[in-house]
């Protein structure tokens, strides 16, 4: 059973999400919160599996709440936002969210995303991730990192990371690099372990921050 906490300052949104999620045999909404501070408290009390987190809320916003929830290892966070080009959403990814969805995501995709995050996968549309990163890096708001952090990677691992950052799926990376999909998964696991990253989203952000790939490049 995937135990979920819903966080949104709009009651109508929470009601809709609860209806969708509670209709599933393997998902249970255990609590709701209307701001970030309340979300952190619910997570401390209930230790849910996944938090569906709005990012734009009065008081403590979803970015700060995500940072606290992930930092204390209370739950995985899946951010929901109204706009796909949203600096709040990218900031939440940087704070540790496992992904984000638009609020008008179809119910089937929402349910799939919640299950995927619970299983440890990152959930972000590659095209949306790319546009968010392009915008964020382009504003100069991102703090770029020294690329020496990448020195532990082999040449092949760097190639895989570059293609991850370009938004390619494992299958597409395998085809481009003439590898099996299983080998690509192995490389990704090693990349995450060497760079001490939690998931694919963090790897993509790091690739941009270190200049391994530049906004607008193919």
Summarize the structure in words.
The chain contains ten helices and five strands, in the order βαβαβαβαβαααααα. With 218 residues, it is α/β, with parallel strands linked by helices. It folds into two domains: 2-124, 3-Layer(aba) Sandwich (Rossmann fold); 143-209, Arc Repressor Mutant, subunit A (Orthogonal Bundle). The termini are far apart. InterPro entries: CheY-like_superfamily, NreC/VraR/RcsB-like_REC, Sig_transdc_resp-reg_C-effctor, Sig_transdc_resp-reg_receiver, Tscrpt_reg_LuxR_C, WalR-like.
Q: Brief description of this entry?
A:
The chain has 218 residues and is of the alpha/beta class. The protein has helices spanning 11-22, 36-46, 62-71, 87-95, 107-118, 126-138, 155-165, 170-177, 181-195, 200-209, and strands at residues 2-7, 27-33, 50-54, 76-81, 99-102.
